[in-house]
Design goal:
CATH architecture: 3 Solenoid
Number of domains: 1
Low-confidence stretches: none
Largest sheet: none
Radius of gyration: 14 Å
Number of strands: 0
Number of helices: 2
Structural class: little secondary structure
Strand content: under 5%
Helix content: 10-25%
CATH class: Mainly Beta
Shape: globular
Mean pLDDT: 94
CATH superfamily: E3 ubiquitin-protein ligase SopA
Order of helices and strands: HH
Distance between the termini: 37 Å
CATH topology: Pectate Lyase C-like
Length: 144
C-alpha cells in the first residue's frame, strides 16, 4: 500500500523528495502504483523505494538512484534512464520498451520477463543481471 505522505512529496518536487530521503535514510518508501508518467525526475533518490506497478512511462529518470528499488511490473516505456543506477533493482516483468538505458548500471538487477524491445542499451552494465525470459528481441545487450 502506497504511503500518501511520500506520494505528496514526490508529486511536489524531486528536491523535496531527496531532502526527505536524506532525513530518513533507512526508510524504504512505498509509492506502489504511483502515476508519474512524463515527470521530470532527473537525479531522484529512489534507492530502495517500492515502485511496484508504478507508471513511469516517458519519465526523465536520468542519473536517478534506483539501487535496490522494487520496479516489478512498472511501466518504464520510453523512460530516460541514462546513467541511472539500477544495481540490484527488481525489474521483473517491467515494461522497458523504448527506454533509454545508455550508460546505466544494472549489475545484479532482476529483469525476468521484462520487455526490453527497442531499448537503447549502449554502454549499459548488465553484469550478473538475471534476464531469464526477458524479451530482448531486436536489441543488443553488451557482454551477452
Amino acid at each position: 500500500m502506497a504511503d500518501t505522505e511520500y506520494l505528496r512529496v514526490i508529486q511536489e518536487s524531486v528536491t523535496l523528495w531527496n531532502q526527505t530521503r536524506g532525513m530518513y535514510p533507512g526508510v524504504k518508501p512505498d509509492i506502489s502504483g504511483v502515476n508519474l508518467a512524463d515527470a521530470d525526475l532527473a537525479g531522484v533518490d529512489f534507492n530502495g523505494t517500492i515502485l511496484y506497478k508504478a507508471n513511469l512511462q516517458g519519465a526523465n529518470l536520468a542519473r536517478a538512484d534506483l539501487e535496490g528499488a522494487n520496479l516489478e511490473e512498472a511501466n518504464l516505456r520510453n523512460a530516460d534512464l541514462w546513467r541511472a543506477n539500477l544495481r540490484g533493482a527488481n525489474l521483473n516483468r517491467a515494461n522497458l520498451r523504448g527506454a533509454i538505458l545508455a550508460s546505466a548500471t544494472l549489475i545484479q538487477a532482476r529483469l525476468c520477463g521484462a520487455d526490453l524491445r527497442g531499448a537503447i542499451l549502449v554502454d549499459a552494465n548488465f553484469s550478473n543481471a538475471d534476464l531469464d525470459s526477458a524479451n530482448t528481441w531486436g536489441v543488443r545487450i553488451p557482454g551477452r
